[in-house]
Amino acid sequence: MISPELRDVLACPLCLESRGCEECSREGVDHSACSRDYDVRVRCACGGPEKSRLVAADGALRCPCCGIEYPIDENGGYVDLRPRWSLRADTLYANHDFHERLLIRDTPPVLSAGVKAAWTRRLLGLRPGDTVLDLGCGAGKFALFHAEHGQRAVGVDVAPFFLPRARKRIDLVVADLRRLPFRKGVFSHAACLDVLEHLDESGVSDVLVETRRVLGPCGRLCVYTHAMESSRLASFQRGVNRLARSLGRLGLVDSQRERLRKSDHVNAIRSHEHFDALCAAAGLVVSRRRYYNVVFKAVVEDLWLRLYEQARARRRSKTKRLAVDRPVDPGGAPHGRGALLAARLLTRLLMLDVTFFGRIRTGPFFGLIEKRAPDAHAVRPAPSKRAGEPES
Question: In the CATH hierarchy, which fold is given to the domain comprising 76-231+260-296+359-371?
Answer without folding.
Answer: Rossmann fold (3.40.50)
